[in-house]
UniProtKB/TrEMBL annotation:
This is Fe-S cluster assembly iron-binding protein IscA.
Length: 423
């Protein structure tokens, strides 16, 4: 298995502390096959945090279960939302935590203490943006009943991001080429972006999107948590690497591409990817990908036929990836997207691969400055081949989706309690 673990990652991982919640009586929310609704269980955990109470995340115990203080209100909320739970006495709860602390067991307890302020970067803030209605994160946050706010380019340009803890990007194009593919954006969507660029003094949408990409990177470096899926993960790094270089064809902005654009890319400015080659432009509304970061490049919305595997991390020493990979199933069905998965040789050695298929990396983590990011390939964890990508997935049909659970692991991650490093 491929693992890129830097010293910085290791130090950050061990900075998370074992939970210290004391209980009168406790509610155990199992996350194994005994759970009636895995996705809504995360919503219960978030609601407890929002109420000012702590949540113990039991890493590698019954699929990454949660334990909270027992109250009539929380019990009622579990019943209303269809979430399975078990009542534990104070003695049993304490014994369970002691059991998980055993150094011979690959299990541990992490205390979540504060509900993260969540935002989703999406053009639905300013335009119809029908494609964004199928954003997997918007879908699962709504289904799990986890509150969030919507932001777009203006909020980033105005410097609003530091007000929040957790930022999601889905299938955005930060290169200023309006998606390049499959009628991704309507003329209304394009006009809105042109208007924002003009309002803030940018001559091109690509210049405005670069400023947005840099603002997102600064948010992360300043201590924010970034979660990106599909083309957003790919185009964010392309835009950062191409700062000061024209990589946008005339069909998008009226002038040509710098003939030396490829050689001028600066991979030191990117978060996750390096040594990638830009794809040629087939013209607006054409069918092309952005670069060979995408392991299914040239095939657009391709549906892989296989599965990808989550790595088994140490709950006591590799705490961060252990949290982000909690699941009741370690093998997950691959799913398509404009950026389906990440070519292995394009992923920086500083990134940690947490899930991989036979030929690509699907789920990766890294750090920049005081912040962290996770990139997840693909469009919709329950998307099907030949399906209409504009039709939202009904998560009532997929309450146990292991692919969607990875998204929700990331939602809870910023709530983890930290302690001072010993090194």
């Amino acid at each position: 298995m491929k693992r890129h673990l830097t010293l910085l990652l290791l130090l950050s991982a061990i900075s998370l502390t074992i939970g210290t919640v004391s209980y009168a009586n406790a509610i155990l929310i199992p996350m194994d096959d005994q759970q009636a609704n895995h996705l809504k269980a995360y919503g219960i955990a978030y609601a407890v945090l929002k109420d000012g109470q702590d949540v113990d995340w039991l890493l590698n115990y019954r699929g990454g279960s949660f334990m909270i203080k027992q109250t009539p209100a929380f019990e009622r909320e579990c019943r209303v939302r269809g979430v399975s739970f078990e009542s534990l006495s104070e003695t049993k709860a304490a014994a369970l935590k002691q059991q998980l602390a055993d150094p011979n067991l690959n299990m541990d307890v992490v205390t979540l203490q504060k509900a993260a302020k969540i935002i989703v970067y999406s053009p639905i803030k300013v335009s119809p943006a029908e494609f964004e209605n199928t954003d997997a994160v918007l879908l699962v946050l709504t289904y799990a009943e986890i509150p969030y706010e919507i932001v777009y380019d203006e909020e980033v340009l105005k410097g609003d991001l530091p007000k929040y803890d957790w930022l999601h990007l889905h299938h955005e194009d930060f290169t200023g080429q309006y998606g390049r593919n499959l009628h991704r954006q309507t003329l209304t969507d394009i006009k809105v972006q042109e208007d924002i660029a003009r309002k803030y003094g940018y001559g091109k949408v690509s210049q405005m999107k670069l400023a947005v990409a840099k603002g997102i990177r600064e948010f992360c470096a300043g201590g924010g948590y970034l979660f990106a899926m599909c083309s957003a993960a790919e185009t964010l790094d392309i835009a950062l690497a191409a700062e000061g270089v024209d990589i946008v064809g005339s069909s998008y902005d009226g002038d040509g591409v710098d003939s030396d654009a490829q050689s001028k890319l600066d991979f030191t400015k990117t978060l996750a990817f390096e040594n990638f080659t830009l794809e040629g432009d087939n013209g607006y509304r054409g069918f092309s990908t952005f670069s060979d970061i995408n392991s299914s490049g040239g095939r657009g919305y391709d549906q892989p036929a296989g599965f990808f595997e989550l790595f088994n991390f140490s709950a006591k020493w590799d705490v961060i990836p252990a949290m982000l990979t909690q699941n009741h199933e370690p093998i997950i069905k691959e799913f398509f997207g404009q950026t389906t998965a990440f070519r292995k040789t394009a992923v920086k050695p500083s990134a940690l691969v947490m899930g991989e298929g036979k030929t690509s990396d699907r789920y990766i983590y890294g750090e920049v400055g005081r912040g962290q990011w996770t990139f997840y390939g693909g469009h919709d964890p329950e998307g099907t081949r030949g399906g209409n990508f504009r039709t939202p997935t009904d998560l009532n049909l997929h309450p146990h989706s292991p692919g969607y659970r990875l998204i929700l692991n990331n939602v809870l991650f910023p709530s983890a309690r930290k302690k001072k490093r010993k090194t």
